[in-house]
Amino acid sequence: MHPHRFTRVKSIALSFCAALGLVFLTGCATGITNLTPAVLPENPSQIYTISTRVKPKAPDVVPGSLVVRIIIDGQSFPMKKSALGNDIYEFDYQLPAGRSELAYYFLVNYKYLQQGFARDTEEFIDVVRTKIVGRYVLSLETNRGPVGARISVLGRGFTAQDTVTFDGTTARTVYDSPNSISFFVPAVESGRNYKVELTGANGTSPIGTFRVDATALSVSPTELALTRGQTQSITFTLSNPAPTGGLLLDVTTDAPESVIMPEVVIPAGSTSATINVTGGKPGSGSLFLKGFGSGEVTVPVTVK
Questions:
Q1: Which of 133, 168, 187 is the last residue of a domain?
Q2: Residue 271 maps to which CATH number?
Q3: Which of 26, 191, 214, 268 is the most exposed place for a label (fewest CB within 10 A)?
């Protein structure tokens, strides 16, 4: 009687283990990997390809028994093998009008051999979501340049409220069209890379990495002494010609009521620009230009 009781307990334990193994196959550990990006750019046809990689966890899968399906909008659709690989499956989904998000999951059914018997099982993943965005970046005109260079960005869905940032530092941004914007490389430290992003009402989108190169610049005269209402010219000279689009010199001052001057732009292909500085209220301060030479160019200014 005791051996019989032991055999029964052993049988129950084995059955529990088999059931537990099936649970792990179907929910806890699957061989399904979603290959679809979390964000997809909008396209005119509104057809989007959803793909997944399937490598069943169970050993000894019965050939020809694998069926991969996508459950989306409460409907089940078969997925086809992709030309990208034998274990990759894809499905082209027509997004209904007015929708900007997809919610779906993958369901995989197959047979596997266990102790010589074919058993049915399935694997699945939790629901995943993919957003469709009307604004996206296609390309950055170049990935390096000096402070003040004007750089173009091509894409789609740009607005006049969009701005470009360098590691969080806002760059002067120019809205050209829904498919193009430009920015001037801000006065940041040269000789290093920056993460460039596009921010606006539609969120933040990565643009790429931009390296800010050092550029030598000289100023003549090296200091200004003016009387109120007096005008004096000052020249900014580069060691190399300004790039396409020109070079914006972001000149600032700590005496804005004493210094009256226009914006400084060195034209494309030129090496210098001369402007007139007019004395305002009596006072003293300096002109500052960051990102050039040793890091900052300073021109003392006195107005009597």
A1: 133
A2: 2.60.40.10
A3: 191
